[in-house]
Design goal:
This protein is α+β, with helices and mostly antiparallel strands and 178 residues long. The protein is 30% helix and 33% strand. The chain has a single domain, classed as Gcn5-related N-acetyltransferase (GNAT) (Aminopeptidase, 3-Layer(aba) Sandwich). It has helices at 10-17, 20-23, 33-41, 99-114, 129-137, 166-172, and strands at 2-4, 55-61, 68-78, 83-90, 119-125, 141-152, 155-165. Helix 1 (10-17) crosses helix 3. The radius of gyration is 16 Å and the shape is globular. The chain binds coenzyme A (COA). Coenzyme A binds at residues 22, 25-26, 87-90, 95-101, 124, 128, 130-131, 133-134.
């Protein structure tokens, strides 16, 4: 289940967002409880997307147990070009169950069905194979490999750019609005 984050989620978020292994290929550093509380009061308190430049972060809750096991984010980059971007993080203890893929699929549906996006991308460090596998499982196409394009956390990062168009998503997701 995807749901907004709340102040009750501090410990669950800290459990994975404080870990260096989880943060290795993502833009943020391991988070303290203080940082998490600040985010919950600001960016993560946002529950809607009303204009470009905004981001919506949602928690991944396991239906049945109520456990928060990760979170996903949808960026709305451009109103004119109807472009967005997704990101996902799952607690390592809960990886290998398909939660990231299922959650990101729900986020793509939100972006294409509700927001009317035309194209959604995912930008992934080449060394982050589990993340690239999620993108491929979502039906995203690898469109670029940018060699050493960013000095990321002290090392050159080679970036893989994945993308999926609305029509492609709708063709592969029966039941989604046309
Ligand atoms: C990227 C990340 C979310 C991937 O997590 P993950 O657990 O591998 O991905 P999923 O939750 O979709 O699970 C997929 C795995 O579960 C398996 N699986 C089991 N049941 C499944 C199901 N019902 N549906 C889909 N996959 C299932 C898949 O086969 C796959 O295993 P495999 O990789 O060995 O083939 C995780 O590694 C992570 O959080 N990393 C740190 C943060 C990060 O780097 N985020 C991405 C930034 S670009």
């Amino acid at each position: 289940m995807l749901r907004p984050l709340s102040t009750d989620d501090v410990e669950a978020l800290f459990a994975y967002r404080s870990r260096p292994d989880v943060c290795r290929y993502v833009p943020f550093e391991p988070m303290t409880r203080k940082v998490i509380k600040e985010r919950l009061a600001t960016q993560w308190a946002n529950t809607e997307l009303t204009d470009e430049g905004q981001a919506l972060t949602l928690g991944i809750e396991v239906a049945g147990t109520g456990q928060l096991v990760g979170d996903v984010v949808l960026f709305w980059h451009s109103r004119e070009h109807r472009g967005g971007e997704i990101g996902y993080v799952v607690h390592p203890d809960f990886s290998g169950h398909g939660y990231a893929t299922e959650a990101a699929h729900g986020l793509l549906r939100l972006g294409f069905d509700q927001l009317g996006l035309h194209r959604v991308v995912a930008r992934i460090d080449e060394r982050n194979e589990p993340s690239a596998k999620v993108a491929r499982r979502l039906g995203m196409r690898q469109e670029a490999r940018l060699v050493h394009n960013e000095l990321f956390k002290g090392e050159w990062s080679t970036e893989l750019d994945f993308a999926i168009l609305r029509d492609e998503f709708l063709r592969s997701a029966p039941g989604a609005a046309s």
